[in-house]
Amino acid sequence: MALSAQQVSKRIGNPATQILTSISLEIPDGQFVALTGRSGSGKSTLLYMLSGLDSVSDGAVLADGKDLSQMKRVEKAHFRNEQIGFVFQFHYLIAELTVLENVLLPAKKYGKAAERTEFAKSILEKVGLAEKHQRLPRQLSGGEEQRVAIARALIMEPKYLFADEPTGSLDSVNGEVVMKMLELANVEKKMTIIMVTHEMDFAKRAQRQIQLADGKIMHDSS
Amino acid sequence: MISLAIRYLFSRKRQSLFTLLGIFLGAAGFVIISGFFAGFRTFMIDQLVNNSAHIFIEARQEFLTTHSLDDAFFAKRISHAFWKSVPAGKKDYNRIENPEGWYKRLEADPRVDAYSPQLVVAALFSKGGTSVSATLTGCTPEQQARVNTIAANMTEGAFSEIGNGGNRIILGQELLRRLGAKLLQNILVSTGAGAPTPFQIVGVYDSGSKGGNQQAYASLADVQRANQTLNLVNQIDVRLADYEQSASVATTWSGISLEAIESWDQRNANIFTIFSLQAMMRNIIVSVVMLVAGFGIYNVLMMTVTQKMKDIAILQAMGYESWEVRSLFLFQGLVLGAIGAALGLIVGYFVCQYLETLPFGGRAGTTVPLGHLAIDLSFAIYSQAALLSILSALVASYLPARAAAHFTPIEIIRGGTE
Ligand SMILES: Nc1ncnc2c1ncn2[C@@H]1O[C@H](COP(=O)(O)OP(=O)(O)OP(=O)(O)O)[C@@H](O)[C@H]1O
Ligand SMILES: [Mg+2]
Q1: How far is the CA of A40 from the centre of ligand 1 (A)?
Q2: CB atoms A80 and B410 under 8 Å
Q3: What CATH code is carried by the domain that includes residue A11?
Q4: Gap between the Cα atoms of B167 and B200, Å rounded
């Protein structure tokens, strides 16, 4: 079973700019992939399309053979809620909700907040935020906020975890903590992880490195 | 979604309170103004219904037309008459053709409580050098007392004193004042037929209105004699057991008789115009308040949507659907509307309670009760106010809600701060 892109292209705007050109790749379940490349090379765009958050202009993205663009409304909601976790480059927590409530927000969608509360607390404990789960995001440091965002992406134990420069805005200590969280999810939960990163040290720790340039795959380590 | 909606509201307390105030004012205003007007309306109708008869049967005024005299002059001998000077004027003295037939019909009708045959004429009242023209009603006092409140409105003397003859008369306060006359003095009454007849003033009444006080009552027989029209009756006042049937009964009778028949509400149509004007006024005031309140909600929510774009993107990325994002904002409007309405209704209710304690109306010796402002506290007004406030809050939050669910998460993130 795998996540695969078949001849995926993306054009944006009018007049259209070609952002991705005919990308094909196959990511087997449980693989840890690092996406690298220069700024503007199309890493974020590819990540959004692999996760189904964005639509393709040509080609198709298949999860276990199922075309993401063919999903109906309810099926798509379930897929986003249960199969994927997304960590944005900027942490995007909801300011009005506490740390714990932010982490449990995906679980609320289908009424699973109560049964996931213990699990949420255990993740927060692992990332050193056990005492701070009643705080509001503005009472946290940037590194702590990013850890909460990752905890939130993990709460439904999704099959795929997408992370867009999760360590980009963090210092090396916090970056290391975040990287450890991802590695742990990959090893313990057999989660497929696709991470965009600029940092070569982190990229090397992934099983596979894919390098983009001008919307095309320039190098694929597998 | 609901708890998040409430958190959003709490995170901007001042704006929420401000928009709440708008809805609150709209709801309270609706309740108070409606209560006041509806209470006024009920009061007025009570006054009208109590003071006057319910149905008036009047002789129809018939006018001559070009050919109404053809038959009388030429019988069937010619088919068409050309008049040099076309016939014009009133036909005969207007009278109820068969009053006995009416009396029988009215007595047999279970809906009729009482009736009073009358001869109503225009008359000139003179005392010394002063003359005042006014309406003189000839009636049988026992019957008249049962169809309107004239007997209860007496300030001096008793209504029954006009009796069944003897040229005794009762004047309205205003008429008495303008004649400069006093109780038990004699005045001359002229109806245009024959010599003026002397009448003795045996009573004075006050109906509560100036117009109503410029009339006079005497016995039917006396007025018929003074007017030189023995046995003539030109109006019958009727009181029904249930005044609400007045209009429909009047309409039925109109269909089966020659007389002109009017009910109290048809006769006082102008007052109903006032009521509908009042309702219009209330609607305009309340719409303006609701419009302002709705615009407040719209503005605040629109601003929240723009501020919370990233939240919306995250929610959607987590699998929350468009309708859930929409409901997040609709619910904020609904909460504002519901709380504003509830507060408005409660405060409106207490203001109405207070208004009810204010003294109003009341004139000694009349049927206008010395009472308090009548305020309608009916459930219908309150449910209408609640419905209106919540509805306008929902309408106002619909557009922001739709705007919120309009974008895909990626459009928001791309267009955002990255
Ligand atoms: N809305 C848009 N309209 C037009 N072009 C866009 C739009 N969004 C992104 N692009 C272009 O698409 C290209 C790829 O963008 P993308 O965000 O995927 O790059 P990236 O590799 O993630 O860069 P970075 O490392 O800076 O995050 C860039 O050249 C960018 O200018
Ligand atoms: Mg990027």
Answers
A1: 5
A2: no
A3: 3.40.50.300
A4: 6
